[in-house]
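Below sits the subject:
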Amino acid sequence: MGDLLLLRVIGIVFALSSLVSSEELLVVGETKELLVTPSLVVKVNGSSRLKQDLNTLCERIRVHGFPRFKHVDKYAHSLKLMVHVLTGGNTSTTHVCFHRDLSLGIGMCPDDQWEKVSNGSWFQTMSLFDHKILDVRISSSSKVTMKVSTVEEWFMIRIVFLILGTLLLSSANSLSRSVAFYYTCVLTVGSILGVLVLLFQGLKRLPTGLGSSALFLYSSVVVGLGGVCFRYVPELFHSMLILMELDEGIPESVALGLWLHLHFVGLSLGLFTVKRFVLDKDGSIDVSTSNFVS
């Protein structure tokens, strides 16, 4: 009985050591490239790309980015992660999954997240300060050696946006008191401006009142939540198209008509909001709304 228990412990330790050995660490700024040969055998079940009960060779590479506050000078940079197949079998059997889900086992990404390494190469861009996981899967018995490397890329557009954002921030007080600024915003982001002002009108009617500190707090929360929710609007729209079975083959004229309709609805909402809630009867800007926008 004791010998059987010892054998089980040795087997568990061996299995854990094989899992650890199947993970590589790529530290940005320290590791320029890695040579990887997937060796961990993983059985894939119920996959639409691969046959059922097929043994695949997998490997995991953890990508660790820079500490954000120690490398502020890298603000305008991004990291390009590249995979090149050097030697081995057919590259059409090589797939990669780029994610940050630590709960997934090696080679256990959902089927729709796997991407084929076409023509022997694959690349993806990520934040220089992010920590992500690259899973590699080879759906053949032959050994494949690949090179995983990183390249830092500098984007001038980020510096431009930083300068524009600083200028807008410094001139927020004067812009929030300009009628031309509101109508310019209506023409560009009409629906967003309309929704924000309507939410502010609801905040003004809270029974506790709205002091200067509360105004700043509520404004930050509203704009922050609005920005987060706005990211999921395209996914929600796509889900609605799938439910209506219009996700494939929708005519370009219909898509253009829908886009124009949404644009004019947002424009109308923005114009109504400015005239109803932003401008006073004498044509001046409402003070509380100006402070909120500022």
